[in-house]
Amino acid sequence: KAGVTQTPRYLIKTRGQQVTLSCSPISGHRSVSWYQQTPGQGLQFLFEYFSETQRNKGNFPGRFSGRQFSNSRSEMNVSTLELGDSALYLCASRKTESYNEQFFGPGTRLTVL
Amino acid sequence: QQQVKQSPQSLIVQKGGISIINCAYENTAFDYFPWYQQFPGKGPALLIAIRPDVSEKKEGRFTISFNKSAKQFSLHIMDSQPGDSATYFCAATGATDSWGKLQFGAGTQVVVTP
Q: Rounded to whole angstroms, how far apart are CA atoms B101 and B79?
């Protein structure tokens, strides 16, 4: 069974631009969570989607948004990029709401210049 | 405010030795405690997890010890191997919030010397 896939793997943007990252969960998994990983702040929860609905949101500004499609694939968008948005963005999937194991993808490395 | 505190920040252990990583939490609503292993350039991989109704769980060379009253849990890596050199993260979450929202510790970089 294929794991969680994320595209693109690497991205370079400049300040003020916007970016869209994509995540395909494990087949049959309906929940997708997004995390930001930086050396300074560690792993921080961004948001979670289940059945196309946002279930939970972390403490990030409104520039960070996401959505989930009917096939459970998810995208996150960051608008008006700042230097501090440079990070590894990780997506994780779970089978259902009552299933607690989360499986992570390889991440998208975003660099903001 | 970090809800899960992890220590040490790094540790060096000889091949065959035991690596011990500790975590503490405050939120009593947490009811699921996974450990993740991350290699450079990779996403975190689920290693082992525990629920608070058991005090210990063992899978191969990896053991979680859980102390509910002290709100602490730890990972023991027995017979450490060079291939275990990685960063380890403890995490916690609870059904009342969402199991999809993991609160992570800061991570421990483990180096196993030959």
A: 32
